[in-house]
Design a protein that fits this description.
This protein is of the alpha/beta class and 412 residues long. It has 12 helices and 20 strands. It has 2 domains: 156 residues, Lyase, Ornithine Decarboxylase, Chain A, domain 1 (Beta Barrel); 242 residues, Alanine racemase (TIM Barrel), CATH 3.20.20. Helices cover 29% and strands 24% of the residues. The termini are far apart.
Length: 412
């Protein structure tokens, strides 16, 4: 969503205020054109023979977003059996889905095997069990490179104390298990964290993964996870994927020659593909002035968008109804019976009760982390595709809240 001629617009000159009037508030809106441009940007950035872009669907699992990315040629990165099932429902071939769970049971992993998807294992205990139960089923191994990266401690997953991955220092033990059980290792995987700005992090991790790969014959691909940083402010910094693409692609091609085989280069972007395609719209219920603060209270809360409270994440906030007005300083808060603050002391165009505010970068880890806390309904979702708007999820109702509850007769 951009400011054009004094008014905010999506691609195809779509007016966000008309969308809110049509579908109600609060409302998530995703611009398919932006998702497509981000996908093509990655395709161009990595000039290798076999590039595989697997969308990390935990960022946004609406089946229409999955189908859009499948149409563009993406594979799918999943972290739960439920995401696997949704991916299959969206039309992805099992071979194009990589299942990368953490701390799940063998029962769930067996379900993934039954579904025929690629399986990525991140601990030796489960690998031993897997090797006994599925000796011929190919697996990927998630390596922890012990690189501390990521924009927040909660999304930094490659450090030495992380629960994710098999320590690179356990490589001799890992190799013994693989050789003893005859496990068919088809790929190696690493993921150091999210919101990574420094390309050197990927390159350091690449060298660790390359050295590990030399211990395994017959690999099909190397998976570098993702973690590309997107800009959260108008002039914010982001990962230079073009510069990274040139450096890593050159080194990857050299390694393939050393390995004696052209391997697939796999990435699992989620936030990079969908984050800035999304805007979350909410109506201002009240403007409240205290001795030190002017609050703008909206018809939403941490139940709909928890990232600012959970990660201290920044989302630019704009007044879509009154974009050209004189800016004032506001703290934007929600209606939940908790401290749910979206932004403190933000410079926003003069806010009036009834105005519609837009929270940018709401495409990733926003609706997917939403809840029914305070028994609030989750909002609707809309996709803009080729200039047309489509309702892709209805707003919840009281029936949805009560749907799985069972009323026992003793209290009737």
């Amino acid at each position: 969503m951009e400011l054009l001629n004094g008014q905010y617009r999506f691609s195809g000159d779509t007016d966000p205020l008309q969308l809110v009037e049509k579908y109600g508030s609060p409302l998530y809106v995703y611009d398919g054109e932006r998702i497509e441009s981000q996908y093509k940007r990655l395709q161009t950035a990595f000039p290798v023979k076999d590039l595989r872009i697997h969308y990390a669907c935990k960022a946004l699992t609406n089946i229409n977003i999955l189908r859009l990315l499948k149409h563009l040629g993406a594979g799918l990165d999943t972290v739960s059996i439920q995401e696997v099932w949704i991916g299959l429902k969206a039309g992805f071939a099992p071979n194009d889905i990589l299942y990368t769970p953490n701390c799940v049971s063998m029962e769930e992993i067996n379900m993934a095997v039954e579904a025929g998807v690629r399986v990525n294992i991140d601990n030796i205990s489960i690998l031993e069990q897997f090797g006994h139960e599925h000796p011929d089923y190919p697996v990927c191994l998630r390596i922890n490179p012990h690189i501390n990266a990521g924009g927040n401690s909660k999304i930094s997953v490659g450090h030495i104390d992380s629960k994710f991955g098999i320590s690179i220092h356990q490589l001799p033990h890992l190799k013994k298990v693989v050789d003893t059980l005859g496990i068919n290792v088809e790929g190696l995987h690493m993921h150091t964290g999210s919101d990574i700005l420094d390309a050197e992090v990927f390159l350091r991790g690449a060298e660790i993964l390359f050295q590990a790969a030399l211990h395994f014959e017959g690999l099909d691909y190397l998976d570098f996870g993702s973690g590309f940083k997107v800009a959260y402010t108008e002039n914010g910094v982001s990962t230079d994927v073009e510069a990274l693409g040139q450096s890593l692609s050159t080194r990857f091609t050299e390694f393939c020659e050393e390995y004696g085989k052209d391997l697939g280069l796999m990435f699992e972007p989620g936030k990079f593909l969908v984050s800035d395609s999304g805007v979350f719209f909410a109506k201002v219920n009240v403007v409240k002035t205290t001795p030190s603060t002017v609050f703008a209270g909206i018809d939403s809360g941490l139940n709909h968008l928890i990232r600012p409270m959970f990660y201290a994440a920044h989302h630019d906030i704009v007044n879509v109804s009154n974009p050209s007005a004189k800016p004032r300083i506001y703290t934007v808060v929600g209606y939940i019976c908790e401290t749910d603050t979206f932004g403190v002391n933000r410079k926003i165009s003069d806010i009036r009760e009834g105005d519609i505010l837009g929270l940018k970068n709401a495409g990733a880890y926003c609706y997917s982390m939403a809840s029914n806390y305070n028994s609030r309904f989750r909002p609707a979702e809309v996709l803009i595709h080729k200039g047309k708007d489509y309702l892709i999820r209805e707003r919840e109702t009281l029936d949805d809240l009560l749907n799985k509850q069972i009323e026992i007769p003793i209290f009737a």
